[in-house]
Design a protein that fits this description.
The chain has about 230 residues and is α+β, with helices and mostly antiparallel strands. It has 2 domains: about 80 residues, no CATH class; about 140 residues, Poly(a)-polymerase, middle domain (Orthogonal Bundle). It is about 45% helix and about 15% strand. β5 and β6 form a beta hairpin. The radius of gyration is 19 Å and the shape is globular. The two termini are about 25 Å apart.
């Protein structure tokens, strides 16, 4: 389900005792989690804090361990060591929202999101994963995915104008999931999306003209080895 394993990021969410929470101890908490994991995985050299999680890099895959606390009123609080704040979130609520949207798209939304994540990974993870999920879901509201080629082309096209737009968490836990962006990062995102859109358009045109090999080669220039080769 997460193949290829070598490029997989597996998220593990752990809920801690409230005694470990303090208003400004985000960095200290991640450091403490890191030390605990290093004692458990003493032969694994790459264990380090990474903003909102502690990343364990094994020989064949990575695990992001996200510590959190139960939040008054529902959901959870997770640390953001980069901005020295606590982020409100609720993975269960997000699953409910995306499952409902996936049904609207007859089961095509989740696979399309995975495709776009492969594109993002191939571009060096320009977008944070959750930001990308929110954007894809947002630009597909009020339309229905007819097929994956047109769906991918639509997403790449419409996301270009949404990178700089303030985008709220659909579960109402954050006013802007893109608050981490700087101008240079956003410019790179828009440029990469523009390039992907134009290639997707070209691939669709090749397919309509019956040039299957050329269409597949164009899609592979977007998704690299995540897209199957011709023949």
């Amino acid at each position: 389900m997460i193949a290829p394993l070598t490029t997989a990021d597996i998220d593990v969410f752990i809920v801690l005792d409230p005694k470990y929470h303090a208003p400004q101890n985000q960095h200290a908490l991640l450091t403490s989690v890191m030390k605990t994991l290093k004692r458990r995985y003493s032969k694994t050299p790459k264990i380090k804090p990474d903003g909102q999680a502690v990343t364990i890099t094994f020989t064949d895959f990575k695990v992001d361990v996200v510590p959190g606390f139960y939040r008054t009123g529902g959901g959870f609080l997770i640390p953001d060591a980069n901005l020295n704040r606590w982020i409100s979130t609720d993975p269960k609520k997000h699953v409910e929202l995306w499952t409902a949207s996936n049904k609207v798209h007859n089961g095509s939304l989740v696979p399309l999101i995975k495709m776009v994540k492969c594109w993002n990974r191939e571009r060096g993870d320009l977008f944070r994963s959750f930001h990308l999920e929110v954007l894809v879901r947002h630009v597909l509201e009020n339309v229905t995915i007819a097929d994956y080629p047109s769906g991918a082309r639509w997403v790449f096209d419409k996301m270009r104008d949404k990178v700089w737009v303030k985008m709220a968490d659909p579960a109402s836990y954050s006013e802007d999931v893109a608050s981490y962006l700087g101008k240079s990062e956003a410019d790179r995102m828009i440029s990469a999306l523009d390039q992907a859109y134009r290639k997707a358009l070209t691939a669709e045109n090749y397919a309509k003209q019956g040039y299957a090999k050329l269409a597949i080669e164009e899609w592979r220039s977007v998704f690299a080895d995540y897209f199957p080769a011709y023949g």
